[in-house]
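Hi there,

I know you've been waiting on this one. I reran it after we fixed the sequence typo, so this is the corrected version. Both the input and the resulting structure follow.
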Amino acid sequence: MENWRKGPKAKGDPIPPYLGAPDPLDDVAHQNILLLTRDLLYAIELTSAISGGDFGRVEDLLPTLAKMFRGAGSNNYCTEILYFLANLKHIWTPKFA
């Protein structure tokens, strides 16, 4: 059995080599849908954590959220989240935090 990129495996093969399985890396729409799905799952997780009052989950999501804001060009939001995390973990006392 040959690779689909090299050609059909037999003369009577119904799939020509140029109609083989599409490469997901070339499909920009598919990649954008994957990124949107990932971002929406983070938003759902954050909303669920806030609604449930689970600050540990919110705290776990904040670094990822800061990276997402930085990647989107929202540098002020990223800076504020990182400042909040630094205060939470290193400056504020556990009793206060």
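Quick highlight: Residues 26-91 form one domain.

Best,
R. S.
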